[in-house]
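Hi there,

I know you've been waiting on this one. I reran it after we fixed the sequence typo, so this is the corrected version. Both the input and the resulting structure follow.
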Amino acid sequence: MAAKKIQINRAPVMTLWATVVAERLGYDSEAALSLGKAVAGLNAQSKGRRLGIYKPSGEQEVPKGKPKPTEPTFINLLGRPVPTLRTKKGLRAAIRGEVVESEPVEEYLAKKFGADLAEVRNAMETVARSFEPEALAAQAFGLYEKFRPQIPEGTRGWGAAGELDLGLVQRLAKPQPKVIKVRKSTGAGASRRSKGGGR
């Protein structure tokens, strides 16, 4: 049976993959969703500025009389530093001080992937689990580059849908070493040797 191929743009694919990677690195599911969305958003901003779609943003000044916002802690995910804050709900990504909540990210992924979400997530989780966390952290973006949907270069590809091949995703899983079980001898010969040893 041929592996499924899905037409989808890159943003939700990166969001889901970054979420799966974050979970493999030990973050809880809600924090992982927040981090995943932030990574995709930061990546889109960077690409948009490179293509001239977005203008570079300057430093935002804090109005006088307002308390200075809490300094974020940066977490590296898919090769991109993500600013985070510790909230009442736990760790969350925070872009320009605005917390990225997990619930809207869940809704976003459900809408973009539809009925294929569980199957795509399962394929990505299989890949993530095949790597040790430290190795996955180092290779996560490189793996994404191998399976991300192919789209036209430049502004023509901005927001365009491409093909996500689940067969390709699954083939990126690192082969696991085979465990060979050695059975202990329980034959008559072993029993005789045991008895003879007591003489």
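Quick highlight: Residues 5-56+68-194 form one domain.

Best,
R. S.
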